Protein backbone atom coordinates (compact mmCIF):
# COMPACT_ATOMS: atom_id res chain seq x y z
CA UNK A 1 0.00 0.00 0.00
CA UNK A 2 1.36 3.43 -0.90
CA UNK A 3 1.18 5.59 2.20
CA UNK A 4 2.33 8.81 0.52
CA UNK A 5 -0.14 9.31 -2.29
CA UNK A 6 -1.14 12.90 -2.99
CA UNK A 7 -4.80 13.47 -3.68
CA UNK A 8 -5.92 13.42 -7.30
CA UNK A 9 -6.16 16.99 -8.58
CA UNK A 10 -9.73 18.24 -8.70
CA UNK A 11 -11.30 19.38 -11.93
CA UNK A 12 -11.83 22.83 -10.41
CA UNK A 13 -10.17 24.38 -7.40
CA UNK A 14 -12.31 25.38 -4.47
CA UNK A 15 -11.47 28.62 -2.70
CA UNK A 16 -12.98 29.78 0.56
CA UNK A 17 -12.62 31.97 3.63
CA UNK A 18 -11.79 30.87 7.14
CA UNK A 19 -14.51 31.73 9.65
CA UNK A 20 -13.89 34.30 12.34
CA UNK A 21 -12.45 37.24 10.41
CA UNK A 22 -12.81 40.30 12.66
CA UNK A 23 -10.83 43.51 12.17
CA UNK A 24 -9.79 43.66 15.83
CA UNK A 25 -8.90 39.99 16.35
CA UNK A 26 -7.99 38.25 13.06
CA UNK A 27 -6.50 34.78 12.64
CA UNK A 28 -3.07 35.73 14.00
CA UNK A 29 -4.48 35.00 17.46
CA UNK A 30 -5.48 31.49 16.36
CA UNK A 31 -2.03 30.95 14.87
CA UNK A 32 -0.45 31.85 18.20
CA UNK A 33 -2.84 29.99 20.51
CA UNK A 34 -3.67 26.80 18.55
CA UNK A 35 -1.71 26.97 15.30
CA UNK A 36 -1.75 23.28 14.34
CA UNK A 37 -5.44 22.86 15.06
CA UNK A 38 -6.20 26.05 13.13
CA UNK A 39 -4.20 24.93 10.08
CA UNK A 40 -5.77 21.47 10.02
CA UNK A 41 -9.23 23.07 10.08
CA UNK A 42 -8.65 25.05 6.88
CA UNK A 43 -8.96 22.32 4.17
CA UNK A 44 -12.64 22.01 5.06
CA UNK A 45 -13.07 25.53 3.62
CA UNK A 46 -11.26 25.00 0.34
CA UNK A 47 -8.02 24.27 -1.49
CA UNK A 48 -7.04 27.94 -1.12
CA UNK A 49 -8.37 29.65 2.00
CA UNK A 50 -8.35 33.34 2.84
CA UNK A 51 -7.34 34.38 6.35
CA UNK A 52 -6.42 37.67 8.01
CA UNK A 53 -3.11 38.51 9.70
CA UNK A 54 -3.79 41.84 11.34
CA UNK A 55 -5.13 44.18 8.68
CA UNK A 56 -3.60 42.08 5.89
CA UNK A 57 -5.39 39.49 3.82
CA UNK A 58 -3.46 36.27 3.25
CA UNK A 59 -4.18 32.93 1.59
CA UNK A 60 -3.29 29.44 2.84
CA UNK A 61 -2.67 26.73 0.23
CA UNK A 62 -4.23 23.46 1.41
CA UNK A 63 -3.73 21.10 -1.55
CA UNK A 64 -0.36 19.46 -2.38
CA UNK A 65 -0.70 20.05 -6.12
CA UNK A 66 -1.28 23.76 -5.60
CA UNK A 67 1.68 23.92 -3.22
CA UNK A 68 3.97 22.34 -5.82
CA UNK A 69 2.71 24.67 -8.55
CA UNK A 70 3.52 27.61 -6.32
CA UNK A 71 6.98 26.34 -5.33
CA UNK A 72 7.91 25.67 -8.96
CA UNK A 73 7.02 29.20 -10.02
CA UNK A 74 9.56 31.09 -7.92
CA UNK A 75 9.40 34.10 -10.20
CA UNK A 76 5.71 34.71 -9.41
CA UNK A 77 5.70 33.36 -5.83
CA UNK A 78 8.89 34.84 -4.41
CA UNK A 79 10.12 34.44 -0.86
CA UNK A 80 8.42 37.17 1.10
CA UNK A 81 5.60 37.90 3.48
CA UNK A 82 5.70 38.26 7.28
CA UNK A 83 8.03 35.31 7.92
CA UNK A 84 10.74 36.42 5.51
CA UNK A 85 10.42 40.07 6.53
CA UNK A 86 11.41 38.98 10.04
CA UNK A 87 14.01 36.49 8.85
CA UNK A 88 15.74 39.07 6.67
CA UNK A 89 16.20 41.28 9.72
CA UNK A 90 18.18 38.37 11.18
CA UNK A 91 19.78 36.69 8.15
CA UNK A 92 20.00 39.52 5.65
CA UNK A 93 19.71 38.33 2.06
CA UNK A 94 21.46 34.98 2.40
CA UNK A 95 20.55 31.89 0.40
CA UNK A 96 17.56 31.12 2.65
CA UNK A 97 15.88 34.51 2.34
CA UNK A 98 17.22 36.18 -0.81
CA UNK A 99 14.81 37.17 -3.60
CA UNK A 100 14.39 35.09 -6.75
CA UNK A 101 16.78 37.04 -8.96
CA UNK A 102 19.78 36.42 -6.68
CA UNK A 103 19.08 32.85 -5.62
CA UNK A 104 20.75 30.97 -8.48
CA UNK A 105 24.08 32.79 -7.98
CA UNK A 106 24.10 32.14 -4.24
CA UNK A 107 23.05 28.52 -4.54
CA UNK A 108 25.72 27.82 -7.17
CA UNK A 109 28.35 29.23 -4.81
CA UNK A 110 27.29 27.16 -1.79
CA UNK A 111 26.04 23.94 -3.41
CA UNK A 112 29.46 22.15 -3.59
CA UNK A 113 29.65 22.01 0.22
CA UNK A 114 26.42 19.99 0.35
CA UNK A 115 26.82 17.59 -2.56
CA UNK A 116 26.23 13.92 -1.65
CA UNK A 117 29.90 12.95 -2.01
CA UNK A 118 30.93 15.77 0.32
CA UNK A 119 28.21 14.90 2.82
CA UNK A 120 29.32 11.26 2.80
CA UNK A 121 32.78 12.30 4.00
CA UNK A 122 31.17 13.92 7.03
CA UNK A 123 29.83 10.62 8.39
CA UNK A 124 32.77 10.21 10.76
CA UNK A 125 32.56 13.75 12.22
CA UNK A 126 28.79 13.36 12.64
CA UNK A 127 29.28 10.12 14.57
CA UNK A 128 32.09 11.64 16.65
CA UNK A 129 29.88 14.51 17.80
CA UNK A 130 27.09 12.12 18.82
CA UNK A 131 29.47 9.74 20.59
CA UNK A 132 31.15 12.59 22.46
CA UNK A 133 27.76 13.74 23.67
CA UNK A 134 26.46 10.46 25.08
CA UNK A 135 29.74 8.86 26.19
CA UNK A 136 29.47 10.17 29.75
CA UNK A 137 25.77 9.69 30.29
CA UNK A 138 24.89 7.46 33.25
CA UNK A 139 22.04 5.08 33.98
CA UNK A 140 19.14 6.99 35.51
CA UNK A 141 20.53 10.39 34.56
CA UNK A 142 17.96 12.91 33.31
CA UNK A 143 19.08 14.66 30.13
CA UNK A 144 17.56 17.65 28.38
CA UNK A 145 17.36 15.90 25.02
CA UNK A 146 16.35 19.07 23.17
CA UNK A 147 19.48 20.90 24.32
CA UNK A 148 21.63 17.80 23.79
CA UNK A 149 20.57 17.50 20.15
CA UNK A 150 21.31 21.19 19.61
CA UNK A 151 24.80 20.55 21.00
CA UNK A 152 25.38 17.78 18.46
CA UNK A 153 23.96 19.60 15.45
CA UNK A 154 25.67 22.89 16.26
CA UNK A 155 28.97 21.01 16.50
CA UNK A 156 28.51 19.32 13.13
CA UNK A 157 27.30 22.43 11.33
CA UNK A 158 30.17 24.36 12.89
CA UNK A 159 32.63 21.90 11.35
CA UNK A 160 31.04 22.26 7.92
CA UNK A 161 31.03 26.04 8.07
CA UNK A 162 34.18 26.84 10.05
CA UNK A 163 36.19 23.59 10.37
CA UNK A 164 37.32 23.66 14.02
CA UNK A 165 36.98 27.42 14.61
CA UNK A 166 34.11 27.07 17.09
CA UNK A 167 35.70 26.15 20.41
CA UNK A 168 33.43 24.52 23.03
CA UNK A 169 32.59 27.83 24.69
CA UNK A 170 31.59 29.56 21.47
CA UNK A 171 29.65 26.49 20.29
CA UNK A 172 27.62 26.62 23.52
CA UNK A 173 27.00 30.35 23.03
CA UNK A 174 25.84 29.79 19.46
CA UNK A 175 23.46 27.06 20.62
CA UNK A 176 21.95 29.31 23.30
CA UNK A 177 21.60 32.25 20.91
CA UNK A 178 19.86 30.11 18.29
CA UNK A 179 17.40 28.82 20.88
CA UNK A 180 16.49 32.36 21.96
CA UNK A 181 16.20 33.63 18.39
CA UNK A 182 13.85 30.85 17.31
CA UNK A 183 11.54 31.53 20.25
CA UNK A 184 11.18 35.17 19.29
CA UNK A 185 10.79 34.78 15.54
CA UNK A 186 7.38 33.10 15.49
CA UNK A 187 5.55 35.83 17.39
CA UNK A 188 7.22 38.38 15.12
CA UNK A 189 5.80 36.52 12.14
CA UNK A 190 2.13 36.34 13.15
CA UNK A 191 1.88 39.63 15.09
CA UNK A 192 2.12 42.27 12.37
CA UNK A 193 2.40 45.32 14.67
CA UNK A 194 6.03 46.46 14.51
CA UNK A 195 5.56 49.00 17.29
CA UNK A 196 4.97 46.19 19.79
CA UNK A 197 8.48 44.83 19.28
CA UNK A 198 10.01 48.19 20.08
CA UNK A 199 8.71 47.92 23.65
CA UNK A 200 11.47 47.01 26.15
CA UNK A 201 9.95 43.70 27.26
CA UNK A 202 12.27 41.04 28.73
CA UNK A 203 11.61 38.75 25.75
CA UNK A 204 12.41 41.49 23.24
CA UNK A 205 15.65 42.34 25.05
CA UNK A 206 16.67 38.66 25.09
CA UNK A 207 15.98 38.37 21.37
CA UNK A 208 17.92 41.52 20.49
CA UNK A 209 20.92 40.46 22.58
CA UNK A 210 20.92 36.96 21.05
CA UNK A 211 20.86 38.29 17.47
CA UNK A 212 23.69 40.72 18.21
CA UNK A 213 25.82 38.08 19.93
CA UNK A 214 25.29 35.52 17.16
CA UNK A 215 26.46 37.98 14.53
CA UNK A 216 29.40 39.03 16.72
CA UNK A 217 30.59 35.42 17.08
CA UNK A 218 30.40 34.88 13.33
CA UNK A 219 32.26 38.13 12.73
CA UNK A 220 35.01 37.07 15.17
CA UNK A 221 35.48 33.77 13.34
CA UNK A 222 35.66 35.50 9.95
CA UNK A 223 38.16 38.06 11.23
CA UNK A 224 40.44 35.41 12.74
CA UNK A 225 40.41 33.40 9.52
CA UNK A 226 41.32 36.45 7.45
CA UNK A 227 44.16 37.38 9.82
CA UNK A 228 45.49 33.81 9.73
CA UNK A 229 45.54 33.97 5.94
CA UNK A 230 44.94 30.23 5.62
CA UNK A 231 42.78 28.51 3.03
CA UNK A 232 40.43 25.90 4.53
CA UNK A 233 38.13 23.43 2.81
CA UNK A 234 34.91 24.62 4.43
CA UNK A 235 32.04 26.99 3.65
CA UNK A 236 33.85 29.96 5.17
CA UNK A 237 36.85 29.20 2.95
CA UNK A 238 34.60 29.15 -0.12
CA UNK A 239 32.96 32.44 0.81
CA UNK A 240 36.24 34.21 1.57
CA UNK A 241 37.74 33.04 -1.72
CA UNK A 242 34.72 34.58 -3.48
CA UNK A 243 34.89 37.78 -1.41
CA UNK A 244 38.65 38.42 -1.38
CA UNK A 245 39.57 37.54 -4.95
CA UNK A 246 40.64 40.05 -7.60
CA UNK A 247 37.03 40.26 -8.80
CA UNK A 248 34.90 39.82 -5.64
CA UNK A 249 31.70 37.84 -6.14
CA UNK A 250 30.26 38.54 -2.69
CA UNK A 251 30.47 41.33 -0.13
CA UNK A 252 31.69 41.03 3.44
CA UNK A 253 28.11 41.47 4.63
CA UNK A 254 26.98 38.57 2.45
CA UNK A 255 29.68 36.33 3.94
CA UNK A 256 28.20 36.97 7.38
CA UNK A 257 24.59 36.63 6.18
CA UNK A 258 25.29 33.23 4.60
CA UNK A 259 26.99 31.89 7.72
CA UNK A 260 24.23 33.07 10.06
CA UNK A 261 21.58 31.62 7.72
CA UNK A 262 23.25 28.21 7.50
CA UNK A 263 23.95 28.08 11.24
CA UNK A 264 20.32 28.74 12.12
CA UNK A 265 18.72 26.43 9.58
CA UNK A 266 21.35 23.69 9.76
CA UNK A 267 21.49 23.29 13.53
CA UNK A 268 17.90 23.94 14.57
CA UNK A 269 16.02 21.74 12.09
CA UNK A 270 18.15 18.63 12.58
CA UNK A 271 18.04 19.01 16.36
CA UNK A 272 14.25 19.23 16.39
CA UNK A 273 13.94 16.20 14.10
CA UNK A 274 16.12 14.14 16.44
CA UNK A 275 14.27 15.29 19.55
CA UNK A 276 10.98 14.34 17.92
CA UNK A 277 12.38 10.93 16.96
CA UNK A 278 13.50 10.06 20.49
CA UNK A 279 10.19 11.24 21.93
CA UNK A 280 8.21 9.18 19.43
CA UNK A 281 10.33 6.06 19.94
CA UNK A 282 9.64 6.22 23.68
CA UNK A 283 5.90 6.19 22.93
CA UNK A 284 6.22 3.34 20.41
CA UNK A 285 8.34 0.51 21.91
CA UNK A 286 7.82 -1.83 18.95
CA UNK A 287 9.38 0.70 16.59
CA UNK A 288 12.19 1.29 19.07
CA UNK A 289 12.86 -2.45 19.25
CA UNK A 290 13.10 -2.70 15.46
CA UNK A 291 15.48 0.25 15.42
CA UNK A 292 17.73 -1.35 18.02
CA UNK A 293 17.76 -4.66 16.17
CA UNK A 294 18.83 -2.95 12.94
CA UNK A 295 21.51 -0.82 14.60
CA UNK A 296 22.97 -3.84 16.42
CA UNK A 297 23.03 -5.91 13.23
CA UNK A 298 24.56 -3.19 11.06
CA UNK A 299 27.18 -1.96 13.52
CA UNK A 300 28.09 -5.50 14.59
CA UNK A 301 29.74 -4.52 17.85
CA UNK A 302 31.07 -1.13 16.78
CA UNK A 303 29.96 1.94 18.73
CA UNK A 304 29.15 4.18 15.79
CA UNK A 305 28.33 3.92 12.08
CA UNK A 306 30.78 4.45 9.24
CA UNK A 307 30.15 5.66 5.70
CA UNK A 308 29.41 2.19 4.30
CA UNK A 309 26.73 1.64 6.96
CA UNK A 310 24.39 4.41 5.87
CA UNK A 311 22.67 2.51 3.01
CA UNK A 312 22.04 -0.40 5.41
CA UNK A 313 20.40 1.70 8.13
CA UNK A 314 17.08 1.49 6.30
CA UNK A 315 14.73 1.40 9.29
CA UNK A 316 16.76 4.06 11.11
CA UNK A 317 16.28 6.36 8.14
CA UNK A 318 12.57 5.45 8.08
CA UNK A 319 12.28 6.62 11.70
CA UNK A 320 13.86 9.92 10.66
CA UNK A 321 11.48 10.28 7.71
CA UNK A 322 8.40 9.52 9.79
CA UNK A 323 9.53 11.96 12.48
CA UNK A 324 9.85 14.63 9.78
CA UNK A 325 6.38 13.79 8.54
CA UNK A 326 4.68 14.02 11.92
CA UNK A 327 6.61 17.08 13.13
CA UNK A 328 8.33 18.89 10.25
CA UNK A 329 10.65 21.51 11.79
CA UNK A 330 9.74 23.91 9.00
CA UNK A 331 5.97 23.82 9.45
CA UNK A 332 4.76 27.16 8.05
CA UNK A 333 6.16 29.34 5.24
CA UNK A 334 5.11 32.43 3.36
CA UNK A 335 5.45 33.61 -0.23
CA UNK A 336 4.67 36.95 -1.86
CA UNK A 337 3.17 37.33 -5.33
CA UNK A 338 5.21 39.52 -7.67
CA UNK A 339 2.33 40.06 -10.10
CA UNK A 340 -1.41 39.55 -10.37
CA UNK A 341 -1.98 35.84 -10.85
CA UNK A 342 -4.90 33.42 -11.15
CA UNK A 343 -4.25 30.73 -8.59
CA UNK A 344 -6.44 28.13 -6.89
CA UNK A 345 -9.65 29.59 -8.22
CA UNK A 346 -8.85 33.14 -7.12
CA UNK A 347 -7.29 36.18 -8.77
CA UNK A 348 -4.56 37.19 -6.35
CA UNK A 349 -3.21 40.73 -6.56
CA UNK A 350 0.49 41.56 -6.78
CA UNK A 351 1.96 41.67 -3.29
CA UNK A 352 -0.43 39.04 -1.87
CA UNK A 353 0.82 36.94 1.06
CA UNK A 354 0.45 33.21 0.42
CA UNK A 355 1.15 30.62 3.14
CA UNK A 356 1.74 26.89 2.94
CA UNK A 357 2.26 24.37 5.71
CA UNK A 358 4.16 21.08 5.42
CA UNK A 359 2.48 20.10 8.70
CA UNK A 360 -0.96 20.51 7.14
CA UNK A 361 0.00 18.44 4.09
CA UNK A 362 1.76 15.75 6.14
CA UNK A 363 -1.32 15.24 8.31
CA UNK A 364 -3.82 15.03 5.47
CA UNK A 365 -5.83 11.77 5.49
CA UNK A 366 -6.17 12.17 1.73
CA UNK A 367 -2.40 11.76 1.37
CA UNK A 368 -1.38 9.47 4.25
CA UNK A 369 -3.15 6.49 5.74
CA UNK A 370 -3.61 6.95 9.51
CA UNK A 371 -1.84 10.32 9.38
CA UNK A 372 -1.66 10.77 13.17
CA UNK A 373 0.06 7.41 13.75
CA UNK A 374 3.82 6.98 13.97
CA UNK A 375 4.50 4.35 11.29
CA UNK A 376 8.12 4.23 10.09
CA UNK A 377 7.13 1.19 8.01
CA UNK A 378 5.31 3.47 5.56
CA UNK A 379 8.75 4.49 4.20
CA UNK A 380 10.14 1.00 3.66
CA UNK A 381 8.91 0.90 0.05
CA UNK A 382 11.65 3.24 -1.14
CA UNK A 383 9.90 6.59 -0.82
CA UNK A 384 12.30 9.21 0.49
CA UNK A 385 11.42 12.21 2.61
CA UNK A 386 11.01 15.14 0.32
CA UNK A 387 11.17 12.96 -2.77
CA UNK A 388 8.43 11.96 -5.18
CA UNK A 389 7.25 8.81 -3.44
CA UNK A 390 3.75 10.16 -4.02
CA UNK A 391 4.40 11.36 -7.55
CA UNK A 392 5.19 14.86 -8.78
CA UNK A 393 2.75 16.38 -6.27
CA UNK A 394 3.93 14.50 -3.19
CA UNK A 395 2.48 15.76 0.07
CA UNK A 396 5.75 14.95 1.86
CA UNK A 397 7.77 18.17 1.68
CA UNK A 398 9.81 18.66 4.89
CA UNK A 399 12.52 20.43 2.85
CA UNK A 400 10.18 22.26 0.45
CA UNK A 401 10.38 21.55 -3.30
CA UNK A 402 11.37 23.08 -6.60
CA UNK A 403 14.51 25.12 -7.23
CA UNK A 404 14.42 26.53 -3.69
CA UNK A 405 14.32 23.18 -1.98
CA UNK A 406 16.54 23.19 1.12
CA UNK A 407 20.21 23.31 0.15
CA UNK A 408 21.21 20.96 2.97
CA UNK A 409 18.47 18.30 2.81
CA UNK A 410 20.90 15.43 2.12
CA UNK A 411 23.18 16.69 4.89
CA UNK A 412 20.33 16.95 7.40
CA UNK A 413 19.03 13.44 6.67
CA UNK A 414 22.50 11.91 6.95
CA UNK A 415 23.21 13.73 10.20
CA UNK A 416 19.92 12.66 11.77
CA UNK A 417 20.43 9.03 10.72
CA UNK A 418 24.02 8.85 11.99
CA UNK A 419 23.19 10.57 15.29
CA UNK A 420 20.14 8.42 15.92
CA UNK A 421 22.08 5.20 15.25
CA UNK A 422 25.05 6.26 17.40
CA UNK A 423 22.96 7.10 20.45
CA UNK A 424 20.54 4.17 20.03
CA UNK A 425 23.52 1.78 19.96
CA UNK A 426 24.09 2.48 23.65
CA UNK A 427 20.98 4.01 25.15
CA UNK A 428 17.25 3.94 25.54
CA UNK A 429 15.74 7.30 26.42
CA UNK A 430 12.63 7.29 28.60
CA UNK A 431 10.32 10.10 29.66
CA UNK A 432 9.82 10.39 33.41
CA UNK A 433 6.32 9.38 34.55
CA UNK A 434 3.62 11.94 33.95
CA UNK A 435 1.57 13.44 31.15
CA UNK A 436 3.21 14.21 27.81
CA UNK A 437 2.95 17.92 27.05
CA UNK A 438 1.86 18.78 23.51
CA UNK A 439 4.43 20.34 21.22
CA UNK A 440 4.06 24.11 20.98
CA UNK A 441 5.23 25.49 17.64
CA UNK A 442 7.53 28.47 17.38
CA UNK A 443 9.01 29.56 14.06
CA UNK A 444 10.01 25.90 13.87
CA UNK A 445 8.23 22.83 15.22
CA UNK A 446 9.52 20.22 17.63
CA UNK A 447 10.19 19.49 21.32
CA UNK A 448 12.05 22.32 23.04
CA UNK A 449 12.17 21.03 26.59
CA UNK A 450 12.20 17.26 26.22
CA UNK A 451 13.73 15.80 29.38
CA UNK A 452 14.32 12.05 29.33
CA UNK A 453 16.00 9.46 31.54
CA UNK A 454 18.95 7.44 30.22
CA UNK A 455 18.78 3.64 30.35
CA UNK A 456 21.87 1.75 29.22
CA UNK A 457 20.92 -0.98 26.80
CA UNK A 458 21.61 -4.59 27.80
CA UNK A 459 25.10 -5.66 26.87
CA UNK A 460 26.47 -2.11 26.67
CA UNK A 461 29.23 -1.57 29.22
CA UNK A 462 30.05 1.73 30.85
CA UNK A 463 32.60 3.78 28.88
CA UNK A 464 36.28 3.56 29.67
CA UNK A 465 38.19 6.66 30.71
CA UNK A 466 39.12 8.89 27.80
CA UNK A 467 42.78 8.21 26.85
CA UNK A 468 45.29 11.03 27.11
CA UNK A 469 45.43 12.89 23.81
CA UNK A 470 42.03 11.68 22.69
CA UNK A 471 39.59 14.12 21.20
CA UNK A 472 38.04 16.27 23.91
CA UNK A 473 34.29 15.99 24.13
CA UNK A 474 32.27 19.11 23.63
CA UNK A 475 30.39 20.26 26.71
CA UNK A 476 26.92 18.80 26.95
CA UNK A 477 23.85 20.71 28.00
CA UNK A 478 22.67 20.83 31.55
CA UNK A 479 20.45 17.98 32.67
CA UNK A 480 18.31 20.34 34.69
CA UNK A 481 14.68 20.65 33.68
CA UNK A 482 13.96 24.04 32.09
CA UNK A 483 10.86 26.08 32.76
CA UNK A 484 8.43 25.38 29.93
CA UNK A 485 8.03 29.05 29.03
CA UNK A 486 11.79 29.58 28.87
CA UNK A 487 12.16 26.41 26.82
CA UNK A 488 10.09 27.40 23.84
CA UNK A 489 6.72 28.92 24.50
CA UNK A 490 5.32 31.09 21.77
CA UNK A 491 3.39 33.59 23.81
CA UNK A 492 3.81 37.34 23.58
CA UNK A 493 5.97 37.34 26.71
CA UNK A 494 8.62 35.55 24.69
CA UNK A 495 8.60 38.12 21.94
TrEMBL record:
InterPro entries linked to this entry: Cyt_P450, Cyt_P450_E_grp-I, Cyt_P450_sf, Cytochrome_P450_monoxygenase
Binding site for heme: 406
UniProt-listed Pfam families: p450 (PF00067)
Keywords linked to the UniProt accession: Heme, Iron, Metal-binding
Low complexity: bias regions: 462-477
Cofactor dependency: heme
Similarity section: Belongs to the cytochrome P450 family.
Protein name from the UniProt record: Cytochrome P450
